[in-house]
Amino acid sequence: MQEFYRDTWAEIDLDAIAYNVKQIKDLHPTKSLFVVVKANGYGHGDVEVSKTAIEAGADCLAVSGLDEALRLRQSGITVPILVLGMTRLKDVPLAASYNISLTAHDSMWIEQLVALPLKETVKVHLKVDSGMHRLGLTDIEQVITCFENLQKAPMVEIEGIFTHMSTADCDKDYLSYQVENFKRLIKDLDLSDVKYIHLENTATLLQQEFEFDHGIRLGLGLYGINPDEEFIPIQFKLKPALKLFSNIVQIKQLKKGDKVGYGATYEASEAEWIGVVPIGYADGWIRLHQGRRVIVNGFECEIVGRVCMDQMMIRLPQPFPMGTIVTLIGEGMPVERVAREIGTISYEILCLISDRVPRVYKKGDEVIAVKKMRFE
Ligand SMILES: *Cc1c(COP(=O)(O)O)cnc(C)c1O
């Protein structure tokens, strides 16, 4: 097993990933489950998460770009992989040769795709824009023409058709509008040969039951997190998979008036114990965390002074021994709270954890792998 030589690490509980897959599969046994592992599996590690999810019953993978898909293929994964973003036309033959499915997002792109001299069949999912106005076809004439063009192309297989919901975690009326609009946009298509009709991301599938689709794209829920606990009350538990830890590497006592960190922005108001923690913005622990709390031996300790590139300082209620564990995300400090306190979403906190932070993979209490992505 790989060793790592610093006191900051992320722990990923692969049992939690498997558990979340099984929960969603149990709730939707007839639907194909695409697990979304873009952006290095939301910071958890794409290959490890994918293999665990597939073993637990996931049917397909979804990523953002072709590079991400190729990485998974090269790790030996054989299930269908869908690229959700735009792929350049010159890269289509490469995708086809690795049996990677692409998103057909635009009518010009589709026109040029069907004109390519392809030697191998490329699988595509037609992307319909039902109201988010990101990728996809917006009007019904376009949807019909593009679908027919793809159908006629001998080296193209329409494997799926899908849309993406923009408000499932905040506005049910707009969600319903998008669902109805999606149905309207695809109603004149002969979808009998299309394997996957899919529209549900995590928030959508936690929010509502749908009959007419047969695919789910599970992103944040795979990692055990509800996109918005207040807006989406759920009856079952998801298990968060990632924890972020560091250690105290130095302790010092300040006198009243002593200052801390770059810019001397924090001043001790009495005699105070300060701990130095080796994590900073180069690890994805950005400067906005100043003033927030981390957990040390059950105490909430304030991050004082500016967060540096590689380190930060925290105020301790008492002098803890060197090497005492600091929890930045985990027991007592869920990622939802971390995100809320700096005005963002869990997604962003997780994706920000940089590749300098080693990932420690656990099953049960056992460490089964360590990945040092930056240093591979
Ligand atoms: C990222 C993404 C998802 C997954 O969304 P979650 O909210 O994480 O479940 C699904 N579909 C598309 C098109 C995406 O880009």
Would you summarize the structure shown here?
The chain has 2 domains: 31-222, Alpha-Beta Barrel (TIM Barrel); 242-375, Lyase, Ornithine Decarboxylase, Chain A, domain 1.
Q: What strand order characterises the main sheet?
A: 11-14-17-16-15-18-10-1-19-20
Radius of gyration: 23 Å
Uncertain ranges:
none
| Average pLDDT metric | 96
> What is the CATH C level class of the largest domain, in words?
Alpha Beta
Shape: elongated
Protein structure class? alpha/beta
- What is the number of beta strands? 20
Q: What is the CATH topology assignment of the largest domain?
A: TIM Barrel
The proportion of residues forming helix, as a percent range, comes to: 25-40%
Distance between the termini: 13 Å
Q: State the CATH architecture of the largest domain.
A: Alpha-Beta Barrel
CATH superfamily of the largest domain: Alanine racemase
Helix count equals 11
What ligands does this structure carry?
pyridoxal-5'-phosphate
How many separate structural domains? 2
Main beta sheet: strand number and arrangement? 10 strands, mixed
Strand content: 25-35%
Task: Please explain how this structure is put together.
This protein is elongated. The protein is an alpha/beta fold and 376 residues long. It has two domains: 31-222, TIM Barrel; 242-375, Beta Barrel (Lyase, Ornithine Decarboxylase, Chain A, domain 1). The protein has a ten-stranded mixed beta sheet. Strands 2-3-4-5-6-7-8-9 form an eight-stranded parallel β-barrel, surrounded by five helices. Strands 12-13 form a two-stranded antiparallel ribbon. It has helices at residues 14-27, 38-42, 46-55, 66-74, 92-97, 107-114, 140-152, 172-186, 202-207, 335-341, 346-352, and strands at residues 9-13, 32-36, 60-63, 81-83, 100-104, 122-127, 156-162, 196-200, 215-218, 242-247, 250-254, 259-260, 266-267, 272-277, 293-296, 299-304, 312-316, 325-329, 359-363, 366-371. The chain binds pyridoxal-5'-phosphate. Pyridoxal-5'-phosphate binds next to α9 and β9.
